[in-house]
Amino acid sequence: MSDKREAVAKAIREGQNRAGVSNSVDTSQFDNLAQMFQHCVDRAKASPATSCMGQTLSYQNLDTLSAQFACFLQQELGLKKGDRIAIQLPNILQYPVVLFGAIRAGMVVVNTNPLYSERELEHQLNDSGAKAMVVLANIAEVAAAVVPRTGVKTVIVTEIADLHASVKRLLINNVVKHVKKMVPKVSFANALGFRQALAKGRSGKFEAADYAQEDLALLQYTGGTTGVSKGAMISHGNLIANVLQSKELFESYGLKPTQELFLAPLPLYHIYSFMLSFVVMMQGNHSVLIPNPRDLDSVIKEMKRWPWTGMSGINTLFVALCNHPEFASLDFSRVKVTLSGGMALTAGAAKTWEEMTGTQVYEGYGLTETSPVVSINPGGANQVGTIGLPLPGTEIRIIAENGEDCGIDERGELCVRGPQVMMGYWQRPDETEKTIRSGWLHTGDVAIVRDDGYMRIVDRMKDMILVSGFNVYPNEIEDVLSSHPNIRECAAIGVPDEKSGEAVKIFVAAKQGDIDKEELKAFLRERLTGYKMPRYIEVRDELPKTNVGKVLRRHLRDEELAKKAS
Questions:
Q1: Cα 48 from chain centroid (whole Å)
Q2: Residue-wise pLDDT tens for the chain (566 aa)?
Q3: Angle between helical axes of 33-43 and 236-252 (0-180°, round to 10)
């Protein structure tokens, strides 16, 4: 180990010691996620586990319902250990039932963004080899269009209130379908309702899958540098480790087992919210699921309804809530912690949140490929503007462009090694080799480690654009743009945006004549998820290129920064 690397490691160890954070983590407590789930159930059977739209499931309810779904998967669908099941659901009660049912039956979960376009969903279903899919009726139109072109054999369709009490279920589902007209008319060749699936699994008993920490648990898709998304292979051991690593930090916030209520406005299909939901369960605490965080009135409504003590969010959500006319009148007296991740927390957002709620925002850092948390600010030792200290058992290196180690306060690429680092990319060994080298995950983010052990992200090496916490890869946008019949050359970059952190801007040159921007937007809307849509379009005769003809995105970014500075 070089002197510089040792100096960084020493600063981190000493920083962890001062903050009361362990340097290591014992991951041997559970062999797999099903064991961890059973531990949570045994610990807090009668306690509320999760609520949504006024309906609550206890840990015992979650145990019973997920067992029924596991039985259905095995006995009715004949799915085997390692088969993939896609989940395309917002934050509703069905999500944890399906998730834990799949895990207990030995399935590999494929989280699927409900906002996906046909192109994106078709790729993910085919790439993962999913054999079954669970989808909310409200958003099933895209799935109905693409499933016939995939290997999905069975689609389980759920309506939004399927797990509510009978009278309320019928009322809500009928209003959503017939009054609000929010459910499109679609059909699948081989489909059944979610409640039918539970009924079919009610009379049988599932066979607990025998698997170890090394077995694959989750395919979590992330944007692809080659124009298509790739599946990060997250093992049972990866998730168990990250839950146990993060649980220690949760305890530093003064959170007590079975006594806390966490608001969960961020989508569970995103790895950040997904993993945090496990941490809340490990303490036997209660999560309130919010189906649509973009509907700020619904978020405020839940904040009023529940005596919440903590929540997770991202910078854009904090800003939007603080600007809501009713936010200042809420009762924040019970709030102990607010966690931020997914995108950089701005000093202004952190300050305003603390002024209005009386509580600090604790920022962390992670990646899909690290299951996801790498570091976080611990309770009682928060430093706004940093990403905190590495989690227990997490090693950090800062590497210069020449491959040598950087020392204290020297900027270089942040590299991570630890039990939470993914197994690799699904069926993409070449991409895995580019990202994980000699056991170290290369994040593509430029960071420094300070002399107190805290870390700060200062830049990004990758061309990736971060829009409201979601990764957007320029290659994917450019791949779609290039398929337009009148685009000769194109480029996509990220530009600063007060609301979303960054926004997508595209530069295009026509093959002939002019480019109709409105027509181009319509073309892109059919092929890209909403957050990937360009906010700005600039038409040029030529784009800056290298001597070999490669478009210089960096040059375009520099031009945009120069414009802003002037």
A1: 24
A2: 899 999 999 999 999 999 999 999 999 999 999 999 999 999 999 999 999 999 999 999 999 999 999 999 999 999 999 999 999 999 999 999 999 999 999 999 999 999 898 999 999 999 999 999 999 999 999 999 999 999 999 999 999 999 999 999 999 999 999 999 999 999 999 999 999 999 999 999 999 989 999 999 999 998 655 557 899 999 999 999 999 999 999 999 999 999 999 999 999 999 999 999 999 999 999 999 999 988 999 999 999 999 999 999 988 789 889 989 999 999 999 999 999 988 778 787 899 999 999 999 999 999 999 999 999 999 999 999 999 999 999 999 999 989 999 999 998 999 999 999 999 999 999 999 999 999 999 999 889 999 999 999 887 677 788 898 888 878 788 878 988 999 988 889 999 888 888 999 999 999 899 999 999 999 999 999 999 999 999 999 988 875 545 678 888 988 988 888 77
A3: 40
- Residue-number span of the structural domain to which 518 is assigned: 465-565
CATH code (residue 173): 3.40.50.980
> Residue 1 falls within a domain, yes or no?
no
- Phi, psi of 480, deg, nearest 5: -70, -45
189, 211, 233: which is the final residue of a domain? 211
Tokens representing 312?
């997770």
Question: What's the rounded Cα separation, in Å, for the pair 512 and 458?
Answer: 41
Question: Measured between alpha carbons, how far is 359 from 502 in angstroms, rounded to an integer?
Answer: 26
Assess if residue 250 is contained within a domain.
no
22 within domain boundaries:
no
- Number of structural domains in the chain: 2
Last residue of a domain, one of 167, 186, 211: 211
* CA 376 – CA 356 distance, rounded (Å): 23
Return the CATH number at 514: 3.30.300.30
